[in-house]
């Protein structure tokens, strides 16, 4: 197992239980009729430092804010329909699991996946994206959770990011319909 794979496995082992607990807690609040911390916001009108987080507070301007900026750049590339910029948001060994599609592993597969996603999909230009939460996991890894609305469809996204040559790159991405 490569060093990168080991880091990813440890990162997943550390965060998945926490995210499951956070998700169950949010579902319990919704079932009780509790108000959510904030409504969806069009990320185009906000910088990542101003975006809603799970606590309703501004996100940190440090590594977590930089990881959010990388996710925002991914969303902006989707909205512009620029497949090359979308693919550049990912690390070379990234994995993307998009709702209803086969898992894409590596740069070429991810580029192909998003070419299919963006072909004829005019809804991406009007989509709204909200970064719900971001956390750093050490100095070189971060987790960003977001929600998106495209037409009548609502999606949940989970991004694992890592520093790659000083830049934050998406190393693992998963989305599904809410």
Relevant terms:
single chain; 178 residues; alpha+beta; Nuclear Transport Factor 2, Chain: A; six-stranded mixed beta sheet; 5 helices; 6 strands; globular; NTF2-like_dom_sf; YybH family protein; signal; FrzH/put_lumazine-bd
Written overview of the protein:
This is YybH family protein. It holds the Pfam family Lumazine_bd_2. Keywords: Signal. It comes from Nonomuraea insulae. InterPro entries: FrzH/put_lumazine-bd, NTF2-like_dom_sf. The chain is of the alpha+beta class. It has a single domain (3-177), classed as Nuclear Transport Factor 2, Chain: A (Roll). The chain has helices spanning 3-31, 63-80, 83-88, 107-118, 123-126, and strands at 90-97, 104-105, 128-136, 141-150, 153-164, 167-177. It has a 6-stranded mixed β-sheet. A hairpin with a 6-residue loop joins strand 1 and strand 2. The longest helix has 29 residues, at 3-31. It is globular and about 40 Å long. Mean pLDDT is 76; it is low at 24-61.
Strand order of the largest sheet: 2-1-6-5-4-3
Low-confidence spans: 24-61
What is the string of SSEs from the N terminus onward?
HHHEEHHEEEE
Using the alpha-carbon principal axes, give the shape.
globular
Let me know the number of strands.
6
- Tell me the domain tally: 1
CATH class: Alpha Beta
Mean pLDDT: 76
**How much helical structure, as a percent, in the residues?**
25-40%
